[in-house]
Amino acid sequence: MIARLHAMYQGSRIMLIFLVIIFLAVNIACVVLGAIALKYARAEEVILSGIHTCDFGYEGDVQLLASMVWMLNTVWEVLALCLSVWIAVKHFRDLRRLGPSTGSTIGDCFRVLIQSHVLYFASFAGVSCLHLMGLSPAFWTSNSIGTMILDGILTVFTAVQMFVLGPRLILSVREYHAKLVAGSDADTSMNSIVFQEHVHV
After folding, report:
1. Using CA of residue 142, residue 145, residue 149, residue 152, what is the dihedral sign?
2. pLDDT averaged per 10 residues, the chain (length 201)
3. d(CA 131, CA 67)
4. Which of 164, 174, 117 is nearest to 1 (CA)?
5. What pLDDT score does 109 carry?
6. How many contiguous H segments (helices) and E segments (strands) does the chain have?
């Protein structure tokens, strides 16, 4: 995530330092809260029909610690979303101010990259908000079909977040580049046809 934001800010060293500091602060706090939560974990052996399985549970108010970890992660992802939206708006405003005559292929590639990154960060923020909804006590104590559907949606979105969004980002940039190359081949062939017509005349 840091590398993506760093690329969006065109390799700004100040932005990299800011992101690393915030990232370290959030993750160190999450590790400490996770270690405190593990202190209250208990494990036991359960025998069901002659099969030995392990079960675990928590003593005390571990749900609060888990929700604090998710809140910190959500704050980090919302910050990343805000930074990506901010640079996207700034870039599109600059493109509009400069006009279409100054547009370049680098600017177009950057536009595609920003659109993919904003989608990436928005989906991360959305999944984090779903995780926060799943941490509510009403969710854990309810056996309704709605909570089961929400849990299934959360499982699917988490898998999509992990295994689809990164490759989708790469594929969207490659797809744009392939269109750009195909368009430049068509322009080259048209120019050569026009040139041949002028040579024969």
Report:
1. positive
2. 77 90 93 88 79 77 82 86 82 69 57 69 79 74 81 84 74 71 57 42 46
3. 9
4. 117
5. 59
6. 7, 2
Listed residue (68, 60, 65) closest to 41, CA to CA: 60
List the structure tokens of 14. 């100040």
Angle at 58 between CA 54 and CA 64, to 5 degrees: 145
Tell me the per-residue pLDDT of 157-191, one tens digit each, with 9 for 90 and over.
Answer: 888 877 877 777 667 767 766 776 776 655 444 44
AA identity, residue 157: F
The encoded tokens of residue 191 equal 């120019």
Task: Indicate the SS3 state at residue 9.
Answer: coil
Asked whether the beta carbons of 87 and 99 are under 8 A apart, the reply is: no
Local structure of 51: helix, strand or coil:
strand
C-alpha to C-alpha distance for 60 and 57, rounded to whole angstroms: 10
Rounded to 5 degrees, what are φ and ψ at 46?
Answer: -120, 135
pLDDT of residue 194: 40
CA-CA-CA-CA torsion sign (159, 161, 164, 167): negative
d(CA 10, CA 61): 44
Query: What do you get for the CA distance between the two ends of the chain, in Å?
Result: 58
Token pair for 146: 């709605």
Q: How far apart are CA 143 and CA 139, in angstroms?
A: 8
